[in-house]
Write a structure and sequence with these properties.
The complex is a heterodimer of chains A (159) and B (157). Chain A has helices at residues 3-11, 22-30, 34-46, 79-87, 118-132, and strands at 50-57, 66-72, 92-98, 109-115, 137-148. Chain A is of the alpha+beta class. Chain B folds into two domains: 8-51; 64-143, Alpha-Beta Plaits (2-Layer Sandwich). In chain B, helix 2 (27-35) packs across helix 3 (39-51). Classes of the chains: A alpha+beta (159), B alpha+beta (157). Strand 5 (137-148) of chain A pairs antiparallel with strand 3 of chain B.
Chain lengths: 159, 157
């Protein structure tokens, strides 16, 4: 990623304008052509620097208000298989392996599941448990959201 | 407003713009062709959805790990009710804290920290523990060993 890529991403960090040619404004600010902005974006997507380009929806505003962090206990030799299998479900937005703390915390696979209500999320968890073949899990519904921002802030300096 | 109250075209538009955004000079025109409405109507609908806060933003979602933000953890704390507001304010101050939620468990406060080095992560955690005065026994530090999936998208249609 070169300096112009950084400039492209920085200029777009608050989003593109909803105007007929949204990339024209970005191009103008940086001093390159629209075609170049578009080519660079496509390459950044290809390289995986941009995980996704598109609309970010505030799911809570469309009624998707149930949010469960579900911690699973998978035998260590199944973690990779479980992680990959769970990742195939669209309902699961995040899936991580985390370290256990002996005597204190035994769950090693974490998933985040969103849904319209707790009932449908619970039903999904039950189905998931059967399909993946894991019985031990801890369901932690969110009660309140105190902060939710994007991880990669562009005023963070990176090389 | 709920997704059931969004009309069919709004739902289809959101789904397409979320899942298959066309990175072209006139993205709204491309979307309008798929939806069989005019470009102007796409623009109007998107502006309305954005104004109502249903659309947070339209743009790039970056892969933190590709930007060398590779040290991350999930922290869970047992926070007594009378300390909650004070503790939340301290934790939310940190740019490296992206998510912070109250959850249904004896460990009731759950937040994520993402930094560019293990050292920075360690320092941040120590500072938060010191400033919030939550004892070690009431803190779970659950570092990420492996990230299988991060894909925050939803189904509207």
């Amino acid at each position: 990623m070169d300096k112009i890529d950084q400039a492209v991403l920085r200029t777009m960090q608050d989003g593109i304008p909803i105007l007929k040619e949204p990339f024209a404004e970005v191009a103008k600010k940086i001093g390159i052509s629209q075609d170049e902005v578009i080519a660079r974006l496509k390459r950044l997507v290809n390289d995986g620097v941009i995980r996704r380009f598109g609309v970010s929806v505030n799911q809570r505003k469309v009624g998707i208000v149930a949010n469960a962090l579900v911690a699973w206990r998978a035998p260590q030799n199944r973690v990779e298989e479980v992680g990959k299998a769970m990742s195939n479900y669209r309902e699961i937005t995040h899936c991580y392996e985390r370290q256990i703390i002996p005597e204190k915390w035994k769950y090693n696979v974490f998933t985040v599941i969103h849904g319209y209500d707790q009932k449908s999320v619970k039903q999904f968890i039950e189905r998931l448990s059967k399909e993946i073949g894991l019985k031990e899990c801890l369901v932690l519904f969110s009660v309140k959201q105190f902060k939710r921002t994007s991880v990669a802030l562009l005023n963070h300096s990176y090389s | 407003m709920t997704a059931s109250k969004l009309n069919e075209i709004d739902k289809k538009l959101l789904q397409l713009a979320q899942d298959q955004f066309p990175i072209t000079k006139r993205p709204w025109a491309t979307l309008s062709n798929k939806l069989k409405i005019t470009e102007e109507e796409v623009i109007l609908r998107l502006k309305k959805l954005h104004k109502e806060g249903i659309i947070r933003k339209i743009g790039p979602i970056l892969e933190a790990r590709k930007l060398s933000l590779c040290a991350s953890t999930l922290i869970a704390m047992k926070v007594p009710e009378e300390k909650m507001e004070h503790v939340i304010d301290i934790i939310n101050e940190y740019k490296s804290v992206s998510h912070n939620y109250l959850r249904e468990h004896e460990y009731n406060l759950w937040f994520t920290i993402t930094t560019s080095s293990k050292e920075e992560l360690r320092r941040t955690i120590e500072e938060i523990k010191r400033r919030t005065r939550i004892p070690d026994t009431d803190v779970l530090d659950l570092p990420t060993s492996r990230s299988f999936k991060i894909d925050v998208r939803f189904q509207f249609t």
